[in-house]
Design a protein that fits this description.
The chain is built from 20 helices and 16 strands. By secondary structure, it is of the alpha+beta class. A hairpin with a 7-residue loop joins strand 14 and strand 15.
């Protein structure tokens, strides 16, 4: 027992001194996640940026460590990694409202690139094919083991804390469970993974026997599933030809899924290709890339059907890029007799870097230019431009109105205010600029779609009424307290040892109940329904002097104030959805 303990302690000590930067990043990521959870949601932007960069740093520092074990220069590589992370931190916006889907794409692709870097960075030289495979196979197994160990450890520790809390009446705060989870899930998993890799690159690339479990999984599960999958896709292709119809958009994802999983299967069985006894592996390896050829034609047809109709967006750009990458893989392995499997992660990494940073042709530049062109085409096609500005008196269909509004929101999120302002009058320019500055991109889309374009020919369209308070500032008056509830976060609010809770069932039961200490409650739903009834003959945005209602609740007098509240309905048979973003509650003692 003592020997085992000393051995474990020795391995832990070796992992700490071999991978200090990886562990520092994991520790910082854990601390950042805890800070996000314990900080007011309106003040967590810096913690989000910090945590994202620290999480990226875990895989990046591990990749640089692997490279340093090959070429040396560890200090220089780690300094370069830190500089990159600082630069990435500065790229991310300083305000939570400014985080858009663009930043989500940037973060996701960068995270993918950092993991791809781990897979090939120590093997840039030639003639290391088998070592490259052994290295990635060992990493794959260690990741799986890490997930199992981390799950068991986290569950066990959480249950131990719960047992101590309940059996000995410690009354731990709930955050101890949350913080423990973050530490074990991020720092703990990283440390466990490093324990499996404590000897470093030399041990990871060492030749070993092919795992029986991996062989069974690939032969009897993965490859049969791929055969079923490709059969379905081929039947769908035949159906398209027979019916002579364009493929559905989501078929792109199915083709990519089949291709990527198939490539993964080939990588898993790579060492078995040369064994005469494994003829099924050789056949699969030779046939697979030929099976993709017809599907690539289907893939490009589906992609360009969407692009030609709606233009480029970042997701369509990335799907097209994956299709081009897949085509390069097929061509490479079919025509190159000395093909190396290292080409797969290296080429995907280069395509990803191209998509992020290549001037003019990166995903974000292409999407912005394309949507600008699409917007101008719609405006010109429907003669909505007058003296260089949009003519909001011109009648268009609901579909066109929605398209224009969506493109305005899309471009506003990407800070194309100068281009959009050129299409608006001075008053709308100022409002647009303010909304972009505040990050109120939905307000841009909502205002444009419901106010600025008159609707005609409503065959099937959402009936939407938005009641807006003219004065957005809330006057407190003689009230003593103000609390607020958000649409997606209505946790109980504490005041003078009393607990206020808002229960929103406006859509289901026309009910919006404010309760005090789970004992007394008042339902403001009927007053809200009455307010919509008074404006039932209106659509779009309707400005009101005030959207407020008040009542007594035990020893308090309360007043609910909405900046805006929306009711929308798609058809006469549907239930109307009623919702709001924020509600302010003014409170005073009676």
């Amino acid at each position: 027992m003592k020997t085992k303990f000393q051995e474990t302690l020795s391995r832990a000590n070796e992992a700490i001194f071999r991978y200090p930067m990886v562990l520092v990043m994991a520790l910082l990521a854990s601390a950042g996640a805890i800070c996000i959870a314990e900080t007011d949601r309106f003040e967590i932007t810096s913690y989000i940026k910090f945590t994202i960069c620290a999480c990226l740093g875990i895989s990046l520092m591990f990749a640089l460590k692997m490279l340093s074990q090959r070429i040396g220069k560890e200090l220089l590589l780690h300094v370069s990694g830190v500089i990159f992370l600082i630069g990435f931190y500065c790229i991310l916006p300083d305000r939570k409202e400014s985080f858009t889907e663009v930043h989500a794409y940037l973060i996701a692709v960068t995270a993918l690139l950092s993991h791809l870097l781990v897979s090939f960075i120590p093997f840039l030289e030639r003639d290391r094919e088998l070592r490259f495979w052994q290295y990635n196979k060992n990493l794959f197994i260690n990741i799986f083991l890490t997930a199992v160990f981390t799950g068991v450890l986290t569950g066990g520790v959480e249950l131990a804390i719960l047992a101590i809390d309940k059996l000995f009446d410690f009354n731990f705060h709930d955050r101890i469970y949350r913080d423990t989870f973050f530490v074990l899930a991020i720092f703990g998993s990283s440390f466990i993974f490093l324990l499996f890799n404590d000897k470093g690159l030399n041990n990871l690339e060492k030749d070993g026997t092919y795992p029986v479990v991996l062989k069974f999984f690939t032969q009897f599960i993965l490859i049969p599933l791929l055969l079923i999958y490709v059969t379905i896709l081929y039947f769908y292709s035949v159906k398209i030809v027979i019916n002579w119809q364009l493929p559905r958009g989501w078929v792109s994802y199915l083709v990519l899924a089949y291709s990527i999983v198939g490539i993964l299967a080939l990588l898993l069985v790579h060492p078995l290709k040369q064994e005469n006894a494994k003829s099924w592996v050789r056949i699969f390896s030779k046939v697979f890339y030929y099976t993709i050829l017809p599907l690539i034609a289907l893939l490009f047809t589906a992609i360009f059907t969407r692009i030609l109709e709606y233009g480029y967006t970042e997701p369509r750009y990335f799907v097209l890029l994956l299709a081009l990458w897949l085509s390069s893989i097929v061509v490479y392995f079919i025509f190159n007799k000395k093909a190396t499997i290292k080409f797969i992660p290296v080429s995907l990494f280069l395509f990803g870097v191209f998509a992020l940073i290549f001037p003019y042709l990166n995903a974000f530049s292409v999407a912005k230019r394309s949507q600008k062109t699409e917007l101008m085409n719609i405006l010109n096609q429907h003669q909505l431009i007058s003296a260089g500005k949009i003519n909001f008196q011109k009648k268009v269909t609901d579909t066109i109105r929605t398209e224009i509004a969506n493109k305005f929101e899309f471009l506003a999120e990407r800070k194309q205010g100068a281009f959009l302002s050129g299409l608006l009058n001075e008053k709308d320019q100022a409002e647009l600029s303010e909304n972009i500055k505040k990050g109120s991109f939905y307000s841009i889309q909502n205002k444009f779609s419901d106010v600025n374009v008159t609707v005609k020919n409503r065959a099937y369209e959402m009936n939407k009424l938005v009641l807006i308070r003219k004065e957005q500032a809330v006057e407190i008056g003689n009230y003593q307290y103000l609390i607020s509830f958000h649409r997606y976060s209505r946790d109980p609010q504490q005041l003078n040892n009393d607990q206020f809770e808002l229960t929103d069932q406006l859509t289901e039961k026309s009910s919006l109940k404010l309760s005090l200490n789970d004992q007394e409650e008042i339902d403001f739903g009927p007053q809200i329904i009455k307010l919509f009834e008074e404006n039932k003959n209106k659509t779009g945005n309707v400005k009101l002097p005030e959207i407020a209602m008040e009542s007594d609740l035990s020893k308090y007098h309360v007043k609910l104030i909405f900046n805006e509240i929306t009711k929308e309905k798609y058809s006469e048979d549907d239930t109307a959805d009623i919702y709001y973003e924020n509600v302010y509650i003014l409170i005073k003692l009676k």
